[in-house]
Amino acid sequence: MTSVIKKVFKNVSNGIIDFKNRYKLPEKYHNSKQLKIMHISDTPEVIYSHIYKMISYSRPDIIIHTGDVVDNLKLENTGTEFLANYRKKSAEFMANLEKLTNARIIYIPGNHDNFNILQANKNRSEILNEGSIIELQGSKIGLAHYPKNLPENTDFNFYGHNKLEKFESKNKNFNGISNINYLVLPAQISYKVEYPWVVDQGRRYKRFNMI
C-alpha cells in the first residue's frame, strides 16, 4: 500500500470515528441517576429520525422543545398554505415521541407553530407559553422560543429561534437551535451534542439570513 493510499485510508477511518463520536454522551451522563433533561428546538422533518435515536440512546427524564416543531414548514411566512401538512407532520412527530419514551414532554410554540394544532395533537405532552418557568430539582428554568421573551430570575434558560442572536445573561443559557442540549440536575452538569449536518438545510436557512 503506497503512502498516499495509507494517508487516504487513515483520513477516511478518522472521519468515520469522528462521526460516530460526534453524537456520543460520556459514560458519566449514562451512569448518573439524577434527573436528565434533553432540550431541542427548531426541528425540520429531515432530523426526526435522528431525534428519535438520540432519545432512545440518552433516555432523558424530561424533553423540552422550544418551538418550530416542523421547521421546514414556515407557517409565519406562508399563512394557511402549509397548515394541513403541518397538522399531519406535527401530529406524527408528537405521537412518536409519546410512544418512544415515558419522559415528560414540554413544548413552547414558536413563530412557525400553530398553538391550537399542537394542543389538539397532544395526549400527555404539555404546551406552555413563552416566558414560563418550571422548577426542577431546586432549579428554576426559563422557557421561550425567542430569547427576548425569557423570564427573569431563573437559574437556566432554554430557547431557540436564531443561532446568530447573541444573548448575554448571568444565567446559564441553552440555545436549542445550535445543539441538542442536556442538563443533569441537581448536579447542574450540562452536555452539548451536535445536530446532523443537514439540519440547517432542512430549516431552509439562507447563508446570512437566519429565519
Automatic annotation (TrEMBL):
Q: Which first-to-last residue range defines the signal peptide?
A: none
Organism per entry: Halanaerobium praevalens (strain ATCC 33744 / DSM 2228 / GSL)
GO MF annotations, alphabetized: hydrolase activity
Q: Kindly give the InterPro entries that the UniProt entry links to this protein.
A: Calcineurin-like_PHP, Metallo-depent_PP-like
- List, for all copies, the residue spans of the domain called Calcineurin-like phosphoesterase: 35-183
Q: What is this protein called?
A: Metallophosphoesterase
| Coiled-coil portions | none
The record's listing under Pfam families reads: Metallophos
Superkingdom, natural source: Bacteria
